[in-house]
Structure formats: C-alpha cells, structure tokens
Design brief:
Blueprint lengths: L5 E5 L6 E9 L5 E9 L5 E9 L15 E8 L2 E14 L3 E9 L8 E7 L5 E7 L4 E7 L5 E7 L10 E7 L2 E7 L8 H8 L20 E3 L9 H4 L14 H7 L1
Antiparallel strand pairs: 1-2, 2-3, 3-4, 4-5, 5-6, 6-7, 7-8, 8-9, 9-10, 10-11, 11-12, 12-13, 13-14
Length: 254
C-alpha cells in the first residue's frame, strides 16, 4: 500500500540510531499500533508504544475509520513508565467531524485536559478552546470553500513571548504560499533529525517542540517537499469522490 512500516534515523557517524519507528496496519490499512524510540539531546532515550482504536471508547460503536481513542505507554531510559489516554469526540456530518479531545496524561491519576472544537452551520471548524494546563483559544479563518487560511492562538503563557500565528495563501483550492512564526518541518534531513532530539523545557510553551519562543518561516515557492525524517513515515491518504469530480480536479485539490 506504499506505507512505511519501519524507519531508522542515524547520527552523523552512521552507527548510532537517533530515532526509530515501527508501524503496524490492520487488514483495512488502518494504523493500529506503533512504537518509537528517540535519543534526545539530554542523552536519554524516550520510548513510546501506542495503540489506536477505531470504536467509541464508551459504546464500542465503530467510527467509520476515525480514530476514537489512543493509549500510549512512555518511558525514559526504560524506566518510570507512564500510560496516557486520548479520547476523541465527533459529530456526524458528511463524515465524522472532530469536536473534542479528552487527554489523561496518566490514566492512574485524575488529571484530565480537554480541548473543544466549535463548528459553524456547515460543520466547519471555526475555533477551539484548549484547556491543558496552558489555557488558550484558537481561531480559524476560512476561505469560501471551507479551507483554513489563518490560525491564531491567544492566551497568556508564563515566560512566553507572543503566541503562534499562521497564514496559508490559497487559490482555487490550492496552497500558493505560507507564512508564520511557528517554525517548520521543511528541513534538511540532518536538521529534521536534530529537531526530533529537542528536549521539552521544564516550563513548556505552545510553540513548536513546546518552546516559549517562535521561529519565523515563509514559503511562497511551494515546489519543495523535503524527504526528511518527518516525511519518510507519512501515512497514505484518502479522498472521498464527490459528484462532478474529475481526475484533474482531484489532482489539483491534493
């Protein structure tokens, strides 16, 4: 199916594995389990074993391919394991549209974080409220066909300067450019491996890699898709054919 089932990234000497991932798919082509290991800049190895479930956490109802909940066990240097759980909520429109995230960083403790998505009358996301210990709001500006063209966060984060802001320039359904202050994953292979190794700060922020500062980035060429650590493991995508579609129109959209 063209999906990556394993990936290993090495440091400059070609011997030390910095990042590895193994992925498993069911007979429907759905990712149901993956395992990752990352040696970060603090010389500690962070591992995570994650299971993905496609039935509602409470009712057991199949969610037509949408990931209903996720459970992940993480360790640092193979010690002090912690199991977290993420439960997704949906509304039904043409398909499943996500409306909430409930996250427990440790299933053995009561702490629970919630994110709520707000939809317009067409079932399109217009804003979100994130309550994860760093409460903030996110607003989305949509174009005439419902694509997001702007994303703005607002909220006070201790020790942080500003908030993430991103703008996508689109024409006739195609992305023509991007600008923002939240960095990018369009990096060289070496830089992308280094990006994975960044250690989350003790007082995390809301910028990329949980940093408290942003990084300006703009791309108006749109002709460069780097083959790097992030893109090697990309999963296959899908497209729902609508009445009146042509191959040319689908190709332009994707």
């Amino acid at each position: 199916m063209g999906r990556a089932t394993s990936q290993s990234d090495y440091d400059y000497n070609g011997y030390t594995v910095i990042f590895s991932r193994t992925a498993y798919y069911n007979t429907k082509g759905q990712l149901y389990y993956d395992s990752t290991s990352t040696k970060k800049n603090d010389n500690k190895t962070y591992t995570s074993n994650t299971s993905y479930y496609f039935t509602d956490y409470n009712s057991g109802q199949y969610m037509l391919g949408s990931v209903a909940w996720v459970q992940s066990t993480s360790t640092v240097n193979n010690a002090n394991s912690t199991t977290s759980r993420t439960v997704n909520g949906y509304q039904w429109w043409d398909g499943a549209v996500q409306t909430s995230i409930q996250y427990k960083p440790n299933i053995n403790q009561s702490t629970t974080y919630n994110t709520t998505f707000y939809l317009n009358a067409l079932g399109q996301m217009t804003s979100a409220y994130i309550a994860d210990g760093k409460p903030r709001s996110v607003s989305f500006t949509l174009d005439e066909i419902g694509q997001i063209i702007r994303r703005d966060e607002s909220g006070y984060i201790s020790g942080q300067t500003g908030n993430p802001h991103e703008i996508w320039y689109r024409f006739s359904g195609r992305q023509m450019g991007y600008t923002g202050n939240n960095g990018t994953s369009d990096l060289s292979y070496d830089a992308s491996v280094g990006d994975r190794r960044v250690v989350s700060p003790n007082s995390p922020g809301t910028f990329r890699n949980q940093q408290v500062y942003g990084g300006a980035y703009a791309d108006f060429a749109q002709n460069y898709d780097p083959i790097n650590s992030y893109y090697q493991g990309a999963a296959g995508g899908s497209y729902r054919v609508n009445q009146g579609d042509t191959l040319q129109r689908i190709a332009q959209s994707l």
